[in-house]
What we know:
Elements lengths: L7 H21 L1 H4 L1 H14 L1 E2 L21 E4 L2 E6 L6 E2 L13 E3 L4 E2 L4 H45 L8 H14 L2
Parallel strand pairs: 3-5, 4-6
Antiparallel strand pairs: 1-4, 2-3
Amino acid sequence: MGGRGADPGAARTVVAVVGIVVAAAAVLSPAAAGGLGKEAAALVAIRAALHDPGQVLRGWDPKSGDPCHWNMVTCYGGHVQELSMTQQNLSGTLSPAIGRLRSLTYLDISFNNLSDDSQVMDKKVIIFGIYIGIGCILLAALVAGAVVLIWQWRRRQRVFAVADDEDPSLTYADFIQHYLLTMIIIP
Length: 187
């Protein structure tokens, strides 16, 4: 038959099989899956904002596969949940891309030279402080209300006991009903 003994049909079959394998690998890769692809992109953005003289982040490359296997990254359930970058001689700022790591529950960036102009961390600390402040105000109001209610109950119990010598007991339910009717509903 022709020249080198190669069958043109077999060559086309090999090319088709290789094409299918490459297409399947592209579709099934973590980057194409969406979740880890977005997390890998966030980690790459974090890396880009940092100066890394020791090259400890050199493996943070979306082409290197699953970010769950990257240095200093821990995943649970297939999502990045921990970044432990302590004592890595990193400098720069923490990228706002860290906010895209939705499952991140632990971040250790201690003993590095990171500047604190990271607006992301500042905003999270401020929001956390606001939540704590609101919680403290609500707790203080609840305690103050309970103290006033108990004080009023004891005061009224004495008043009713003096007014009614035959039945000096006043139940808490009676007090609440009386208190609500006289103090709140009918001012």
